[in-house]
Amino acid sequence: MTQHRGHEEPREESEPRELSDAFDPTQVSGPAATGFPFAPGVDPEALRRRALDALLAARDRTTLLTDSVDDGELTAQHSPLMSPLVWDLAHIGNQEEQWLLRAVGGREALRPEIDGLYNAFEHSRASRPSLPLLAPAEARTYASDVRGRALELLEGTPLHEGGGPLERAGFAFGMIAQHEQQHDETMLITHQLRAGPAALTAPAPPAPPEPVGAGTVPSEVFVPGGPFTMGTSAEPWALDNERPAHRRDVAAFHLDASPVTCGAYLRFIEDDGYGDERWWAPDGWAMVREHGLSAPLFWRREAGQWLRRRFGVTEPVPHDEPVLHVSWYEADAYARWAGRRLPTEAEWEKAARHDPVSGRSRRYPWGDEDPTPERANLGQRHLRPARSGAYPQGRSPAGAGQLIGDVWEWTSSDFLPYPGFVAFPYREYSEVFFGPGHKVLRGGSFAVDQVACRGTFRNWDLPVRRQIFAGFRTARDA
């Protein structure tokens, strides 16, 4: 038996970024007097219902992720890259208290003494188990108490155009729903890193839908050159790094119709892709050599067969699913080996949103309507990516599929502000991460809820990261 070391995770001095963390309502920045523009035609009561549904859905998922294991598993640190699950649970409640009860509602603090414990910028993930954290029962009670008060606040808060910057269009409520869902994704990553029996696969989740007409889908699509509108100034709950809408001119290019599959990636492995320095960026090659990497995270070769571990279950690597748990360096190396490249962030968004007939940019590849189970693999519904070619109803005007859901997709772009960027409601959400150190991912994954996923949504991470639910697709010049 040959034992490969593809399951080992590179270490990095800097922490994985926290999603929407370190909120400080006393330091609201940006357009404090006016807030983001109120989208024309937005119905405040419809947004109130949407906020309620989003908050309830997020809490249902948080409950599943934390009630599916015992207290010992909640308080354990399953990887130095991740917080104990109980930290995430109380942090969700603390941020909701700070932003909704205190900042929007003007209420006195319930637990001001724990603010520092749950500030992600004060304590590294590796150090959090040593903190005097709330015990599981106390954390659940606290989060539940905050939620009950927040729902009462939502019912009575004006969300009309003349409201404050946090209240207008329910922005703060939408932000908190997104924040909780992003931490749910983080907790799902922790579940994947856990040793021991699976906690989320009994009963087995439904399988993703089978591809329909996958044999007729081309391997790549052509995206014509020209200008398009990137970003948004109208999406009510879009975050600051998605704003403002602006024009970009993109040269014509070809893009993979679907994310790169495990089977395609296996050909890179079998061609000694991890042993050939030609394909790797210098830092990526150093990572491969230092950690002896030879395959995606959670893969191993045993008795002549490639296997992977997925939420505690060991199974053969599925050749027709998008490859998962690869770093930016691995995605970039594969693209070079294939004679292609990673798409830029602007190319990805044009392929996903631009409608050449109308000339406008859609909210999603299929149109402006919210995601449905027929269009995208989101919300932890299947606990795995769908097979290549699935979700034909979700394809973009260019013909590319699975741009929303399934796997986050690495792009070649550094995480940078758009022209006219204004930090809101605080600098630490986006601004402190801008620069060449972080690469942009787009599209969401099966672990992302629809409230935190749209055609303009931008994710970012260090190029070494492999524990995240990331894959990629490649491009080439026309």
Q: What can you see in these coordinates?
A:
The protein is of the alpha+beta class and 478 residues long. The chain contains nine helices and twelve strands. It has a four-stranded mixed sheet. A three-stranded antiparallel sheet has the order 1-4-12, with helices on one face. Strands 5-6-7 form a three-stranded antiparallel sheet, with no helix packed on it. A hairpin with a 2-residue loop joins strand 6 and strand 7. Helix 1 packs parallel to helix 5 and helix 3 packs parallel to helix 4. The N terminus is likely disordered.
Core attributes:
three-stranded antiparallel β-sheet, alpha+beta, 478 residues, 12 strands, 9 helices, globular, four-stranded mixed β-sheet, disordered N terminus
Task: Please summarize what this structure is.
By secondary structure, this protein is α+β, with helices and mostly antiparallel strands.
Topology:
Blueprint: H1 44-67, H2 71-75, H3 85-104, H4 136-156, H5 171-193, E1 220-223, E2 226-230, E3 246-250, E4 253-256, H6 262-270, H7 282-291, E5 299-302, E6 305-310, E7 313-316, H8 328-337, H9 345-353, E8 408-415, E9 435-442, E10 458-461, E11 470-471, E12 475-477
Parallel strand pairs: 8-11
Antiparallel strand pairs: 1-4, 2-3, 4-12, 5-6, 6-7, 8-9, 9-10
